[in-house]
Structure formats: structure tokens, C-alpha cells
Design goal:
Blueprint: E1 3-15, H1 19-31, E2 37-40, H2 49-52, H3 64-67, H4 83-96, E3 103-104, E4 108-115, E5 120-127, E6 130-141, H5 159-162, E7 166-168, E8 183-187, H6 191-200, E9 206-211, E10 217-220, H7 228-232, H8 235-259, H9 261-275, E11 298-301, H10 304-310, E12 314-318, E13 321-324, E14 328-331, E15 336-338, E16 341-344, E17 357-360, E18 363-364, E19 372-373, E20 377-378, E21 384-386, H11 395-416, E22 418-423, E23 434-435, H12 442-447, E24 453-454, H13 466-475, E25 482-486
Parallel strand pairs: 1-2, 1-6, 2-3, 4-17, 6-21, 7-16, 8-9, 8-16, 9-12, 10-11
Antiparallel strand pairs: 4-5, 5-6, 13-14, 14-15, 17-18, 19-20, 22-25, 23-24
Helix pairs in contact: 1-11, 6-10, 8-9, 11-13
Length: 489
């Protein structure tokens, strides 16, 4: 493959045109308007997750008022929306904000090398016409947290060897898959499984959600935009207020669950019990073994999950898989689930950095070996930021704090005539590692050896909540545990 290059140097290159990359681009062009930036996207379209995932009913697992941008509020009359609506919102926002013209589609970043001598990143980028080299002073990774190329392999005995039906992973849903009249078993109990069940039940003969252990499920009224606020205030103002109310609601819910786990458990389980069909027991199907928010609470808009159970089109089984036969799943409780199709909704495979081969002076670095400075930069890695969302709130709020922090840092560097910045632990300081995502979910536990970690003190600590983190991003120290280098004369 022919390789071409250019000596032109960009001020900032952002990798990824999903919700993280678009947010970063907005803040860069707004706060550093004279900076030259590019946004590189490996796919043909904008949207990231919302352009990739195609499984039936794909939707957000948090409300769109906080998942959308604060600078361009979500203005549809529903809190949780489908993937197509989210992708269209991102496209419209990028065009309206002038970001679209900065995007280079079908530009997949393969490698990035930092030169200490030149104080530049050199990116190797794969395009339709060959590989090119691009240069930038600062690199922002808006590549999300999961692997776009490979799913998390489900550890199910005999699935690939014995089962003769259709096996599907939600991340790679076939475009023309027909499951009409099929017996479908969804393996998993997270947000994806809870989204899939009511949507598959519309066509399948029957859908079973098979889980090893249950999760907390909360029904919400999905209609927004009809309150007295919307009758009194201009549309844009009213939806901004909706965003603030949803932010506070999630924070209050999360902290209440943490402070009063037994009361929270009773409230959540009590609401579920009222929506179950007669004869369906709470235990073991809807009584989680963990405390609320040790794993994420799953939302079902307008209770569509429970409606499917009420109609008899679907049911839940709680057991471990013992073995697979050609047309059924054998459980450790002695039951056998007949199946024409198995959907492995068991989580996503973590991948920070989108498989970009990152080197410093041609020496490979492992991102998982690094502590994260303010959950936005990496220990001993110059001029590089990555976008990471919350586990107890929407992804976008976490990205927002990182964007504010990074742009403030870039302005500081410009003012002081610095060419590079490196997060660095104080010499001789002993840091205790903490997970960057403190969730008890199996797929998160499996990923701990492959993602950066936080520390237990100072700017190395993980995030707490949006309002605290936003204050730190805007007004906290911009120099602690950072090493700056001046522009060479």
C-alpha cells in the first residue's frame, strides 16, 4: 500500500466522529477559534455507536436530555430515543455547528507516534486511496470504550460446536435477519437484553431472556416536553431546564441508592412486582444479589419490557447454562429451552484508543499500565487526551468535563508558550490503583487489565459527580502533577 505524507502540522486532531468527537470539536473551535483542527472518522458516517449498532429497538440507555449536548439540547418529546433519531441529531448538530466540514470520513487512524525531538504526533491514517501521515501538536481520542471490530466472546459451553440454529451478537446484527416465528433466547440481563426483548417479541413466536442473575429494572414515563415549563418558556429554554432536571434526578437517584441501599432495593423491587404477570415470582428472576448501582440500573421506557411479559410473548429464566444441544439450551436447574436463535447480549469488549498503535519515540506503550490524570490524560504520555463518560450518569456529561478541562489546558499552554504537557506522578509517590469504571458487571471486570486506572488521591482520583467534576475542570488546578515544556526557540 502506497504511503504519502505531508509536512503540514495541525493544532489538534480528534479521532472519532461520535458523540465524544463532536463534543470535543465544538469546544475546540469555540474556545480556540484560531486553532486548526481535523476530525478523523474511520467509517462512512457520523455517529459512532449510533451508526454501527443495528439490532432491533436500539436506543439510548440513559435519557437524551443529558446524553445530548448542553450547547445543543435535545428537543424531542421523549427522554429515551432510538438509534436512528440519535444519529440524525448528531448529524444535524455537526452541520449546524460548522463541525461537519472538518470531518475526514474513511480515515482510520492506525498508529500514532510522539516525537520528543519535534514535539509532534505523527498519525498513520488509512484512507481509500492509501495510507497517509498527518501531524498534530495535540491528539484527542474520541474513540469510545469498546471494540468496534470484535464482540466480547460469550463463554457458553457448546454454543459454537453443538448449536445448529442462528447465533447473533447485538453489535453485529445482520441487516436482513428474519426472526419471524422463531424461538429466540437472549442471553444476558443488561440494557441491551432489556431493549431487545420487547422488540424481538413483536415478530418472534416467543422470546426468553436467560440470565445468570437479575438486574434492577426501572420503568420511566418516556414523554417529555409537555410540562407547564414548556407552556411558559421558549422551546430552547424549556429543554435546557429539562436537561438540568434530569441531571439532578440521576444524581439524586444514584446517591439515594448508595446511602440507603435497602430502602432503594425495596422501592425498585416493589415497582417491578406491580408490573409482573400473575404467577411470575420476584425471586429469583427480579431480585438482584447486589445493591442498587453496584451495576447500572436499566430503564424500560413506558414499561415496554413488562408489557411483553404480560402479553405472554416473552418470559425470563434465571439459571446457569449447563450445555447446548443442536436446538436447545440445557440449564443447571434441569430445564431445556428450545431455541431457533440465540442472541449473546453479554456485554462489550473494552478497547480504549480504538486499536491505535501508540508509541513514544517509536517505543510502544500500553495504555492499561497508565494512571489517568483527571480521567482525561495519561501518565507520561505527552499532549494526548481521551474521552471517558460516567457509569452513574450519561456518557456525554463525562466527556463534557474532559472537553472543558482539555481546552482550558490548551489555552494555558498557549498563554505560557508551552509546546507540550506531560502528566507525571511526583517522584517517590506511591499511588493505589482504583478502577476508572467502578462497576461490578462481568464485562467491566474482564476489562480491568486492558484499560487505564485511576489513583486514590489528587488529580489521579476518579470522577465523583458531574457538578463537582465540572467545577474542577473550569476552576481547579491546571498545573498539579503536570510537566510543561517551553516552545523551542
Amino acid at each position: 500500500m502506497e504511503k504519502s505524507s505531508t509536512n503540514h502540522v495541525h493544532d489538534v486532531i480528534i479521532v472519532g466522529a461520535g458523540i465524544s468527537g463532536i463534543n470535543a470539536a465544538h469546544h475546540v473551535q469555540r474556545k480556540l477559534p484560531d486553532s486548526e483542527y481535523l476530525l478523523l472518522e474511520g467509517r462512512d458516517n457520523i455517529g459512532g455507536t449510533w451508526d454501527l449498532f443495528r439490532y432491533p429497538g436500539i436506543r439510548s440507555d440513559t435519557d437524551l436530555h443529558t446524553f445530548g449536548f448542553g450547547w445543543q439540547p435535545w428537543q424531542e418529546g421523549r427522554a429515551i430515543a432510538d438509534g436512528d433519531a440519535i444519529a440524525q441529531y448528531l448529524r444535524n448538530t455537526a452541520e449546524r455547528d460548522g463541525i461537519y466540514s472538518h470531518i475526514r470520513f474513511q480515515h482510520r487512524t492506525v498508529a500514532a507516534n510522539w516525537s520528543s525531538e519535534l514535539e509532534l504526533w505523527t498519525l498513520e491514517v488509512e484512507t481509500k486511496s492509501g495510507r497517509v501521515e498527518l501531524h498534530t501538536r495535540f491528539l484527542i481520542l474520541g474513540t469510545g470504550y469498546y471494540d468496534y471490530n470484535e464482540p466480547l466472546q460469550a463463554e457458553i459451553p457448546g454454543l459454537s460446536d453443538n448449536f445448529r440454529g442462528t447465533i447473533v451478537h447485538p453489535q453485529f446484527w445482520p441487516k436482513d435477519l428474519d426472526y419471524t416465528g422463531k424461538r429466540v433466547v437472549i442471553i444476558g440481563s443488561g440494557a441491551t437484553a432489556i431493549t431487545l426483548l420487547p422488540n424481538l417479541a413483536k415478530k418472534a413466536s416467543h422470546v426468553t431472556m436467560l440470565q445468570r442473575s437479575p438486574t434492577y429494572i426501572m420503568s420511566i414515563d418516556n414523554a417529555t416536553g409537555g410540562s407547564w415549563i414548556h407552556k411558559l418558556l421558549p422551546r430552547a429554554w424549556a429543554f435546557k431546564l429539562d436537561r438540568w432536571m434530569f441531571m439532578w434526578m440521576i444524581i439524586i437517584l444514584y446517591n439515594f441508592c448508595r446511602l440507603f441501599p435497602e430502602r432503594s432495593r425495596a422501592a425498585l423491587e416493589g415497582a417491578v412486582a406491580k408490573q409482573l404477570p400473575k404467577g411470575v415470582p420476584m425471586d429469583p428472576h427480579f431480585r438482584p444479589l447486589y445493591k442498587p448501582w453496584d451495576q447500572r440500573v436499566c430503564f424500560t421506557p413506558n414499561g415496554d419490557f413488562f408489557e411483553s411479559l404480560q402479553g405472554g410473548r416473552a418470559h425470563v429464566e434465571t439459571a446457569h447454562i449447563k450445555a447446548m444441544s443442536s436446538d436447545s439450551i440445557l440449564l443447571d436447574n434441569g430445564k431445556a429451552l428450545e431455541a431457533d436463535m440465540v442472541v449473546t447480549a453479554t456485554g462489550l469488549k473494552f478497547c480504549i484508543g480504538g486499536h491505535i498503535h501508540i508509541t513514544i519515540d517509536d517505543e510502544e506503550i500500553n495504555l492499561a499500565d497508565r494512571y489517568a490524570w483527571n480521567s482525561a490524560m495519561l501518565q507520561d504520555v505527552p499532549n494526548l487526551a481521551f474521552m471517558m463518560g460516567y457509569v452513574n450518569a450519561s456518557w456525554t456529561l463525562g466527556v463534557e468535563t474532559s472537553c472543558q478541562l482539555v481546552c482550558r489546558l490548551l489555552l494555558h499552554m498557549r498563554k505560557k508558550h508551552y509546546s507540550s504537557v506531560i502528566p507525571r506522578l511526583p517522584k517517590g509517590f506511591s499511588m493505589e490503583p482504583r478502577p476508572i469504571w467502578n462497576l461490578d458487571a462481568t464485562y467491566v471486570k474482564k476489562a480491568q487489565g486492558f484499560i487505564p486506572h485511576c489513583g486514590n488521591t489528587g488529580p489521579w482520583r476518579g470522577r465523583t459527580n458531574y457538578f463537582v467534576d465540572l467545577w474542577k475542570a473550569r476552576y481547579g488546578s491546571i498545573t498539579k502533577d503536570l510537566v510543561f515544556r517551553a516552545v523551542k526557540p
